[in-house]
Amino acid sequence: MNPESPAPALVLDGIKKSYFGVQVLRGVDLTVQAGEIHALVGENGAGKSTLMNILFGMPVIHETGGYEGTMRLAGQAVVPKTPSDAMAHGVGMVHQEFMLLPGFTVAENIKLNREPTRPNLVSLAATVVTRPLGGERSRGIGRALESLDLPRIKRESRAALDQIGMSLDEMLPVAGLPVGHMQFVEIAREVDKEKAKLLVFDEPTAVLTETEADELLKTMKQLAARGVAILFITHRLDEVMAVADRITVLRDGEVVARLDRAEATVPRIAELMIGRTLLQREHPPRAAGALGAVTLRVRDLKVDMPGERVRGVDLDVRRGEILGLAGLAGQGKIGIANGILGLFPATGEVTLEGKPLRLGDPAEALRRGLAFVSEDRRHVGLLLDESIADNIATTALQAQGKFQRGRGPFALYDRAAARTHAEAAIVDLDIRCRGPQELVRRLSGGNQQKVCLSRAFTLEPTLLFVSEPTRGIDVGAKHRVLEKLVEWNRERGTTIVLTSSELLELRRVCDRIAVIDKGRVAGILAPDAPDVEFGLLFAGEAP
Amino acid sequence: MKRYLQAIGVTRGILVVFLLVLWAAGMAVGLELSPVLADCLVRTGMNGVLVLALVPAVRAGVGLNFGLPLGIVCGLIATVLPMNVGLRGWDCFAAALALATLFGAIAGIGYAKLLERVPGEEMMVGVYVGFASVAAAAILWLIVPVQNPELLLPLGGKGFRQTLVLDGYFGRILDRVGQFKFGSGVFPTGLLVFWLSLCGLIAFFFRTRIGIALTAAGENARFARASGIDVGRMRTVGVTLSTALAAVGIVVFSQSYGFVQLYKAPLLMAFPTVAALLIGGASVRHATIAHVIVGTFLFQSVLTTALPLVNRIVTLSPNASELSNIPEIARLIISNGIILYALTRKDST
Predict the structure, then answer these.
(1) Domain range holding B155?
(2) B3 CA to chain A: closest CA distance, Å?
(3) Residue B2 belongs to a domain
(4) Does some domain include residue B296?
(5) What is the pTM of this model?
(6) Less CB within 10 Å around the terminal CB: N or C of chain B?
(7) Is residue B46 part of a domain?
């Protein structure tokens, strides 16, 4: 190979893959140059994950018959059969969910299974004793018994952390670190692999706060400047615009566009991803005077929710409004709905329509006309192994006795009615599935979210709490979900309390936005208030 | 073919083939098949209620109820009480069933309270609860005064015998209802009707609002709580139902068997029961009535067929007397082999 004109870090040529006869990739070409940040965007189900699985040699690819096409890493044709194979060729991966051992220190995690070692008496003895097994095996056994070179582990981890600009103490245990820091430990580990020439970031900012995400993007740029090729997979198009040099848009297993950043805009990328023009319907916020009377009065609410503690919130929700709860991660905005609905221990005074609401009793909250779409879709929002119809109907059946024939606890569940209802919901919310009997586990994130929403709508609530409704879902579904919330609010008068980490979406649909900081309400703003006012409240400074 | 195999599952496929091979081998060595088939059906009905008893616990999210012997001990107490006061026939059987349900339900509530304190460890704790209840009952059998001399331990004038003969009480009373001959075998109509009706009743329960609540609580406790379901209460209902069904199950088992076995007999009964359910395609987190019916039949049929077959082969061999232990050894290998196989298939493939 000619060192003057280095081959691209990654070249994919005509990659095709099908699972059980379903074509998920239809000939994908992709080139990533060294030192380039290349964004890969696409709706859920566009084929991004499959492409990453191929790149990373995940067993699922080869168990299902392999793939077609060729892959070149730094000019060399490879067919990675296992993840360690891929790593040996210089591919590193920063996962969406962290792969760290909580009980180990930062340094130990960075060096895990690649620890520098020093020979000791036992390892030398073992090498001698096992010599009859043959040189390679004998040395292997000897090496396995060598002592860890702790000072070197410490030194090299420190260097890796410094490279990405983290001042974090390398001897701290990972358990108890903020999520943002865990993400950086993951990156430091990939950076420390001397051979890492191509780093894949799979939705790295999904769990980060905005400041942490900014830090991460900065780090990505630094890495690229040092010649590392970066493949960046994300849903957040503003991040793409902030760092990507080039953008590849994937739709239905095909590359539909390759753009340079200069020619790209967020609406253009979004449009390419979903293949239709995004309808930007604006809902003008209603003036405070036009809003109804106070329906939910919250005084001194304290919620003991780990990571999202609420420390005394006073809040009035007005009938018919969409109230946004904004704030940085960990400041307690998530805890408010969880406390009022009784999912986490809470104290304080909450009155609904003038009558006190007992905290800690979800059944009572549901009876009084409250409903909740949880931020934790998979663990609280869904019965993953049940059908769409059962998911939508269960809460209404239990809390309100809908979809039942007869009375009392032994009333029969009316499956047919639930199915008919689910069929209507599938059309109404555009849930992509094979029918109301499909298991929720098989749906994509966006469609699962629509099922959660439909479950709450089925309760016909007067006051609906929705938390992080668009987290981790694609642009098309995001749009649909927000539209639907506005529709229920405008047409049925449902009061909505919308909690979200994405200020932009709150500003699009809310009538008022309360900013939560340090477990308290820092201030309430109109959605069209200047950016600087939001910025000050987020930073915990009253304007 | 592939889709068909996927529908019934690999495990079931293998066992069906194995069973067919056994039957074919039986015919090849001149074994008469109709009594073997009849035996398979009796064994299925006999164990069926015990297997069914596992389902409510799995559904409620406490996993496989290895504490089944607790319910069995309740059922045994319920059996010996009416026998001791001299009830016979249907009176005795009905009294045993009624008391079994009652005792099982009471013990089940206590068991559920215990399991509430060990979240995540239910199955392991269940094993010990089962063992402990059998040991405690053994003391009870020894020290209680017995009025009915037929049940009395021959030595000492106190305590129950190891094995009580049910002839004259309610031995095979259910099997005989509506029974008919096919070949030289007898079809146990009453037993199977009773078992399948219970299955139907439980299936109906899971279609009711409380049944759905119980299933939701078992599958995702946080979801259930957010839907206003009292998860603790649902788990109590599931465990209580499971224990009561186990108590009823041992009464049905005993009537078919013709004997009541006390002392150590219930100790290991949970394991073949769990194996039958797993063979049927259930998992630690998911079980249906279909799993019960298919699993019980396959598991019991393989066991029931293998024993006379090995017997037959041994008697055909020239040195039969030296091999007299082989059938028993073969039974142990086969039954424990199936249990082992079933337990490695916990995720119901």
Answers:
(1) 8-343
(2) 12
(3) no
(4) yes
(5) 0.71
(6) N
(7) yes
